[in-house]
């Protein structure tokens, strides 16, 4: 790997240090992000030219594969040397050159970026040892003059060789004027690596772009439930009061069910409701566009006031859906198997929370070994007023799923563990 490492400059908590959230261990933290440049001289030159401004780098997404902890750093502000990185349980991925934009650190100045990674919010590792990257293609998104540097695209890497397997730029029909792609979920099993689907929520355009690996094709799916709820668009994090109109943000997948498809649980960021639809609808453009498919989308229910969530992920073994809690500085959960018929404030739990260390939970992932990983990044403060470089600002937490949910409303029922996994059954929907 000749890439630059994203260095854990301040490993404040490499050893176990229990957060007051109680159930999650803080495994990594940073005051500011720093990167491993090829040489110390290259780093100094990047600082001198403004290509690297430490205070403008904030992490947003994470994913884990073996001893690599992927950490994304979107180009919200100028001076981000590399958007896609990893920490050796942080290096530029696959290397620094791919992450360098024209005009930054002596990169090519031709203005075309076909082989560059522009700005990544979140990534996903699949069961076929691939890394799926959604590149938003935009920089300086904090400014009104958000710059589109390249079309949004999907990149898929072979994690065993670090080779780019595929790059797919979204087509004109996939993208709307206000589109913003900050997340990706991958639907595949070890037996269907060549028939994988990626679902990419469009939080600005209120749709989902579906990509089929086998057909190397994409299409856009529309539905009312992909929009934000105007009554749930207010946020307060670390005393910063702000409004968001982010629509469909995150999708989490159930295990494969009897009919060969999964339930896709989804929500808008500015909403307290959770919805679901079968992947049967998403995977076929013709079916997705049938008028009657409107009714294939179900309202699960609301978690209650102040429960707006950004990222989510589902643990297939226990059926527990984990989601970030932006207004409550923590992590929420719901058991999609034992509480399949009952979605509401009483069946959702705030499983970890800390007003200081968990301020702005930006991502959560369940890894292949049954661990939950969560990243907090003080995003509201980072974007609004900037962060104090003398404070710890970014943290990675980890917990075993079983330990995390034990004794909570999300815990597995004894009967559930004995009988093994039962796929969720049909639900009633207020809308059907
Ligand atoms: C992480 O560090 C260890 C020990 O220094 C090394 O053996 C391993 O190859 C590194 N892994 C990555 C992914 O760089
Ligand atoms: C997939 O389609 C894109 C055009 O949208 C093309 O550039 C690329 O080469 C195709 N990849 C494969 C593997 O067919
Ligand atoms: C999509 O569904 C339609 C209608 O059921 C079917 O005719 C078509 O073959 C399906 N397409 C694919 C690619 O499976
Ligand atoms: C965390 O902050 C919320 C809202 O700002 C407040 O209601 C709650 O009491 C705080 N929790 C603790 C433990 O301080």
Automatic annotation (TrEMBL):
Subcellular location, in the record's words? Secreted
Signal sequence: where? 1-19
Cite the Gene3D superfamilies for this sequence.
Answer: TolB, C-terminal domain
Q: Which GO terms describe its cellular component?
A: extracellular region
Top-level lineage group: Eukaryota
Ordered alphabetically, the record's keywords are: Secreted, Signal
Pfam families documented for this protein: MRJP
Concerning InterPro entries, the annotation shows: 6-blade_b-propeller_TolB-like, MRJP/yellow-related
Chief subcellular location: secreted
Protein family: Belongs to the major royal jelly protein family.
Protein name, as recorded: Protein yellow
User: According to the entry, what is the taxonomic lineage of the organism?
Assistant: Eukaryota, Metazoa, Ecdysozoa, Arthropoda, Hexapoda
